[in-house]
Write a structure and sequence with these properties.
Elements lengths: L1 E8 L8 H9 L8 E7 L2 E7 L12 E2 L5 E9 L2 H10 L9 H12 L3 H4 L2 E9 L4 E6 L8 E5 L2 E5 L2 H8 L7 H10 L13 E2 L4 E6 L2 E6 L14 H19 L6 E4 L4 H10 L7 E6 L9 H10 L3 E6 L2 H15 L8 H11 L5 E3 L4 H5 L3 H7 L1 H6 L2 H13 L4 H10 L4 H9 L4 H5 L11 H13 L7 H10 L2 H15 L4 E3 L5 H7 L8 E2 L2 E2 L1 H10 L2 H4 L8 H21 L11 H13 L5 H18 L9
Parallel strand pairs: 13-14, 13-16, 14-15, 16-17
Antiparallel strand pairs: 1-3, 1-9, 2-3, 4-5, 5-6, 6-7, 7-11, 8-9, 8-10, 11-12, 18-19
Helix pairs in contact: 1-5, 2-3, 6-19, 7-22, 7-23, 11-21, 16-17, 17-19, 25-27
Length: 631
């Protein structure tokens, strides 16, 4: 796990200055405090900051082959690199290190761009082909690692974080109102958009290629989930998943430094700890908690899980004062606004874990793969609504629309009446109907409807999911949109703020591709969510853990703190016409949204949270983004 950056003057071929690459790399020094490296040749410069995990002595980057015809910089881990190395050696390739990076070097020489499809891991990488004068930049299939870039006037600057790109172009671009519209609708900014004008985010499974004086972007990961034929039985799925989980865990524990686990009180991270015990013992585990006075606190549950599996457990106590004081620093580390309360506990649990380990596993993924969110129930049973006669639906719709608050239910109802599948998915994810979000903006700022913009982001993906059922199609997009651009994005930024590598075993390529071929009945059955996943959990976890309700680092506590902090300052900020957000938004429209929420008629806490995070983000920008997170 590291940080990469680079510049390529693809237009005029002007030479790159090493000091510019050094400035870019220094801005992400927190991602790689162990080593740095540079390759500068004519119009190309590559920079690298290293967090040493595998082959501590031999993994220096940028790395080349013996002839120096191929150069690679790489952030992430390739979990199947021992198998790939053995295969490449059978073709006659000679290796000088034990590093997974060298597998990419020789894999590209053997297979060209197709090397990406051979890799099972998380990565953001760049490959420079000296003879062809060709630069390839790519992001892993599910977007665990990030790549940002700016292409202007024939100059390409890229990096693992936005701050590296800004250091390369040496300017602070303005806010993009269309991306702000997307953020206010979905609480994150979908790839390839960012909040910064002119800065793009390479989409998961995409590659950027620069050659012959031009650059182009396309999806390299084109897996198309097709249903199993013949269909899998319940026993087959349970046994297959158990085997896939065990093999993934074996791969994800590969490390030359200590590995730990970010442990909640729930089943997903509990299952990870059970699987880890198949390959070792006395693992270090870490949980965020808030004290016994909070009903949703997870400390006790996590401690019981740790005790059951004999881990060396550490609890991290978080109080409201610390939360409020550190929120601006956390927003700065994120670089893009994310309106999720999980950012706060994630920051602190990573901070504590890094004192003991360099690598930590986390249980993200099963909710998206196996339909663990409430919205999935609506998508799963949406066909039932269509089967209800219209004379019954009409009064039911009127009653639901008349309910005070209950915005989630109202959004779900609205989406059920959208006939186009893609438009329906977009409505499920939207916090408010598009017209209401558009109405918050100053006149003339928006170029187009943001709902269409999200569907445009999905354009290349839609053709790959035509054989899935309703729920599977929605999850296919989530896995390549909401998961990487929200949860995985802040997981990467906040862990690397503390130089901690976070690995996601449930997002192993073999697991995802298997689950995406399963029908909805294996994900939601008789209203039981994550059904097949829970069958495996039932084999490896005690009943006590299986019965616990879903909490995830007790984020309900932080939600309450968000509300408290918001109540204390929201009125002042929203009613103040000098607030920075009103460069883009209409005070009267935003204030009416707030009044509707206060009156109890509507529940707008999510959009109001988003507005407050956006204001905090703007203030960070005005005070200048630090050259490195935490400075």
């Amino acid at each position: 796990m590291c940080g990469i950056c680079g510049q390529y003057n693809v237009g005029d071929g002007a030479p790159v200055f090493r000091r510019n690459i050094e400035r870019m790399a220094n801005s992400i020094a927190h991602r790689g405090p162990d080593d740095e490296g540079y390759f500068v040749s004519g119009p190309l410069g590559l920079g690298f900051r290293r967090l040493s995990i595998i082959d501590l002595a031999g993994g220096h980057q940028p790395m080349s082959d013996a002839e120096e015809s191929i150069w690679v910089i790489f952030n992430g881990e390739i979990y199947n690199f021992p198998e790939l190395k053995q295969e490449l050696e059978s073709y006659g390739h000679g290796f000088r290190t034990r590093s997974d990076t060298e597998v990419i070097v020789h894999g590209y020489k053997q297979w060209g761009d197709e090397v990406l499809n051979h890799l099972n891991g998380m990565f953001g990488l760049a490959i420079w082909d000296v003879r062809k004068k060709r630069l390839l930049i790519a992001r892993d299939p599910f977007g665990i690692k990030l790549i940002y870039y700016s292409l202007s006037g024939g100059r390409l600057c890229f990096g693992s974080e936005i701050r590296a790109v800004l250091a390369g172009i040496n300017e602070q671009p303005g806010t993009d109102p269309n991306s702000l519209n997307l953020f206010l609708r979905y609480r994150f900014t979908p790839s390839p958009h960012t909040m910064f004008r002119g800065v793009r985010k390479l989409a998961p499974g995409s590659m950027l290629v620069c050659e012959n004086g031009a650059c182009s972007v396309r999806h390299w990961y084109t897996f198309r989930p097709t249903p199993f034929t013949p269909p899998k039985s319940d026993d087959d799925v349970r046994d297959d998943l158990a085997e896939l989980y065990m093999q993934s865990m074996k791969r994800h524990l590969l490390s030359d430094v200590p590995v730990g686990l970010l442990l909640s009180g729930g089943v997903d991270s509990g299952l990870l700890l059970s699987l880890m015990n198949l390959y070792g013992s006395f693992w270090k585990t870490y949980t965020v908690g808030y004290g016994a006075s909070f009903a949703d606190d997870e400390l006790v549950d996590a401690e019981k899980t740790a005790s059951r599996f004999s881990s060396q457990h550490t609890s991290v106590l978080l109080d409201r004062r610390t939360f409020e004081q550190t929120l601006p620093a956390i927003v700065s580390c994120l670089e893009e606004p994310i309106a999720s309360s999980s950012i706060v506990p994630m920051y602190f649990v990573c901070q504590r874990a890094r004192q003991d380990v360099k690598v930590a596993l986390i249980g993200q993924g099963p909710d998206e793969l196996f339909a663990g969110y409430r919205r999935h129930l609506g998508v799963r049973y949406s066909s039932w609504w269509g089967a209800i006669p219209s004379w019954m639906r009409t009064p039911m719709e009127s009653a639901i629309r008349a309910l005070p608050r209950n915005e989630m239910l109202k959004r779900g109802l609205y989406s059920l009446n959208v006939t186009d599948r893609t438009q329906r998915y977009q409505q499920v994810l939207s916090l408010l109907p598009g017209g209401e979000i558009d109405g918050l903006f100053q006149d003339g700022l928006l170029d187009r409807d943001a709902g269409d913009a999200l569907i445009e982001c999905w354009k290349d993906l839609l053709a790959l999911s035509t054989e899935t059922d309703e729920l599977g199609g929605f999850q296919f997009l989530e896995m390549r949109s909401t998961l990487p651009d929200e949860l995985l994005m802040f997981g990467d930024k906040l862990s690397m703020a503390h130089s901690l590598e976070v690995r996601v075993p449930f997002l192993d390529k073999e697991i995802v591709e298997y689950v995406e071929r399963l029908p909805a009945s294996f994900k939601v059955r008789r209203a039981t969510q994550k059904w097949a996943h829970r069958q495996v959990c039932g084999q490896l976890l005690p009943a006590e853990i299986l019965k616990r309700k879903k909490r995830g680092f007790a984020v309900n506590v932080v939600d309450d703190w968000f509300r408290g902090a918001m109540t204390a300052q929201t009125a002042d900020i929203l009613m103040d016409p000098t607030s920075l957000m009103y460069q883009y938004l209409q005070p009267s429209a935003v204030q009416q949204l707030f009044r509707n929420h206060q009156s109890g008629h509507n529940d707008h806490h999510k959009i109001l949270f988003s507005l407050m995070v956006f204001e905090e983000w703007l203030r960070v920008q005005v005070s200048q983004v630090p050259t490195a997170c935490g400075d």
